[in-house]
TrEMBL record:
Domain Transglutaminase-like: 278-351
Source species taxonomy: Bacteria, Pseudomonadati, Bacteroidota, Cytophagia, Cytophagales
Pfam families named among the record's database cross-references: Transglut_core (PF01841)
Keyword annotations of the record: Signal
Protein's name according to its UniProt entry: Transglutaminase family protein
Length: 642
């Protein structure tokens, strides 16, 4: 929807130290952070909010001072400074301080190259970056950077994340303004009270300062959500300010945010093209109910409009008209949302523009009434019985009645009219509605298992599978099918497969396949050992509680059913069947049963995952269940020659 908040948390002003102090400083940080390649001596941002007539002006001064602790730190030589339409970069200065004979010599950077920042999946993007290289990166040398961001709208103040990819001696976020500016702020994820706050006043000037010292580097951990879920940071926004004409509201509450947002859509869809009207009328004529009309409009947009993202100034906020998007057959999230609203209006059905944040963003409208909360737009339909349907046209394979996975649990800001809106939380889809099944028959043939099976995907497994299976390259599809139905070991070979109902939103995707699996079982004398847990989901996936600090994220909750029917080889009898097992953890669990009957052994398993965000205080419960499940996976069947 918009790329207004830029991930540029590099920074800081030069710290002048004496020659003797520089040696001591290197030794001090080397001892404190012996395994790190470098450290921020200081990293800071200073936000200045000033009044220009009846308007506010904001600019951010960013600076950093990095001390290199190891010789091999060339990976830190390349830098980028990001800007966009809303945050214009100016006054970049960079240099390396080269330590030579107990003194620093300056090497100033002069070559700054401006580049367009085109992200994957973005058709047009007005963001950009300046790239450059620091010279002479080596132990004891320092690299210093400073620049200014001129902000076009104070509503887009993005706050400050204190953690960084390097450890920090000192990190500071400062806001300088006046008593006429009513500023709201809050510190998040600071349970250890690492951030110190100070507010000072002098005359009509007010300074807010947040400081932390000796913060360790923020380490990357697998399956982590965005860092604002767990990293200490401060968010702030201007509620209002005083002028000679009176008080001016900016973001004093959610009403202010909504009134501003509504200006982006109030003039849309005043004229409708004959093509759009004809499509809407045809859908209505072919539908037997209002709900069916909504469903068909939603599917029409999914199937006929190509998602292409735009990030271009206010174009990142204001949708195109429905007629324009219909004609061009492409658009971004807000274009597709507006088209759904427009088409339903043409059929006489009310639908509503809806602002929402994806799960990358941890904030809620009811807590932070600012643009920090959202980065996406959908449409909402409210049925006569009060059920809410969240219609995300960008999610191609999502069935009607499901939200897209990325907005589960998020607050939606539903625009009713010019003065009314509603906040509604998008449900987290229960695991019972996201189901995978896999049933197969297998037999032993020499040293191989030969098998055939049928797998089905419904709910979010169908959605995510659809993105991978709906490809033009057959090799890519086969690789994904192999990943999806593969089992036992890396000696699994997919002989053939067929797909059905891939493009039918309302039916499970069905995959039929034949496979071989070599060298999977063992023969010891007269006995044959085979483990029918061919899929060991989350085997030994124990979280290190002592080192992991971030939550763990899952795309969706789900249940997976598996049934394996194995023919008992001729001349063998069942010597041992593992006991049935049931592990019903609060976050993960499985039931496994075994049965021998009429020359066949049947192993049935139900596995489930029941979280989308696993918090550190839940790690112990997770580990306990995973250990029990992993032990159960080790059980093998024993067959013995008669």
């Amino acid at each position: 929807m918009k790329k207004i908040i830029l991930a540029c948390i590099l920074v800081t002003g030069c710290i002048l130290v004496s020659r003797a102090q520089s040696t001591d400083l290197w030794q001090q940080f080397k001892e404190r952070f012996p395994d790190e390649p470098a450290v921020f001596i200081e990293r800071s941002e200073v936000l200045n909010i000033t009044q220009d007539g009846d308007s506010l002006r904001a600019f951010l001064d960013v600076s950093e001072d990095v001390l290199h602790l190891k010789e091999q730190t060339d990976m830190l030589s390349g830098k980028r400074v990001y800007g966009s339409h809303f945050n214009q970069v100016a006054n970049i200065k960079a240099k390396t301080l080269v330590w030579d004979k107990n003194r620093y010599k300056e090497m100033v950077v002069s070559n700054f190259k401006k580049n367009s920042d085109r992200s994957a999946g973005i058709f047009y993007d007005d963001s950009y970056y300046y790239s450059f290289d620091f010279p002479s990166i080596a132990s004891r040398n320092r690299t210093q950077l400073e620049y200014r961001e001129n902000m076009k709208d104070v509503r887009f103040i993005h706050g400050y994340v204190f953690s960084s990819y390097l450890p920090q001696g000192k990190t500071t976020y400062t806001i300088k303004t006046t008593k006429d500016v009513d500023l709201a702020y809050q510190v998040l994820n600071d349970d250890k009270k690492q951030i110190q706050f100070r507010k000072t006043e002098k005359g009509n000037s007010v300074t807010y300062e947040w400081t932390a010292q000796y913060l360790p580097a923020l380490k990357s951990e697998d399956k982590s959500p965005s860092l604002r879920y767990y990293a200490p940071h401060v968010i702030c926004y201007v509620k209002s300010y005083k002028t000679k004409k009176g008080n001016v509201k900016v973001l004093s509450n959610l009403d202010d945010l909504y009134r501003w947002y509504y200006t982006f859509i109030e003039k849309l869809n005043k004229e409708n093209s004959p093509e759009l009207v004809a499509i809407a009328e045809k859908i209505k004529a072919e539908s037997k109910s209002e709900l069916e009309t909504v469903k068909k409009v939603y599917y029409w947009v999914q199937n006929n409009i190509q998602y292409i993202a735009f990030e271009q100034g206010m174009r990142g906020l204001i949708p195109h008209s429905g007629s324009y998007v219909c004609e061009k057959r492409y658009g971004d999230c807000k274009d597709m949302a507006n088209l759904i609203v427009n088409m339903l209006q043409l059929t006489g059905i009310k639908a509503y523009h809806t602002w929402i944040g994806t799960r990358d963003i941890p904030y809620r409208y009811t807590e932070v009434p600012t643009p920090l909360v959202d980065n996406h737009m959908i449409a909402t339909y409210i049925s006569k019985d009060g059920q809410y349907y969240f219609l995300d046209g960008t999610s191609d394979h999502t069935a009607f009645g499901y939200p897209s996975s990325m907005i589960q649990g998020k607050e939606a800001l539903i625009g009713i009219d010019a003065n009314r809106y509603e906040i509604k939380e998008v449900p987290v889809i229960a695991k019972e509605k996201n189901v995978m099944t896999d049933s197969m028959t297998i037999r032993i043939d020499g040293t191989q298992l030969i098998g055939s099976g049928t797998s089905t995907l419904s709910g979010f497994p169908k959605v995510f599978g659809g993105y991978e299976l709906d490809r033009s390259e057959k090799d890519d599809v086969k690789r994904y099918v192999t990943k999806l139905v593969g089992k036992g070991s890396n000696k699994f070979y997919l002989d053939k497969y067929t797909l059905a109902s891939l493009d039918d939103h309302d039916k499970p995707t069905r995959i039929q396949y034949d496979f071989r699996l070599s060298d999977y079982f063992q023969k010891l004398g007269d006995e044959l050992y085979i483990n029918l847990n061919l899929n060991k989901d989350y085997y030994n996936d124990v979280i290190n509680i002592t080192s992991r600090t971030s939550p763990r994220e899952s795309e969706y909750k789900y249940i997976k059913y598996e049934v394996i029917e194995m023919a008992i080889p001729e001349g063998y009898t069942v010597e041992y069947l593992p006991p049935d097992a049931r592990i019903n953890g609060p976050l993960i669990g499985c039931d496994i049963t075994y049965q021998s009957k009429a020359g066949k052994i049947t192993a049935s398993k139900k596995f489930y995952l029941d979280y989308i965000l696993l918090q550190p205080d839940q790690f112990a419960a997770w580990n306990e269940a995973v250990k029990q499940i992993s032990e159960t996976y080790k059980e093998s069947i024993i067959l013995k020659k008669k």
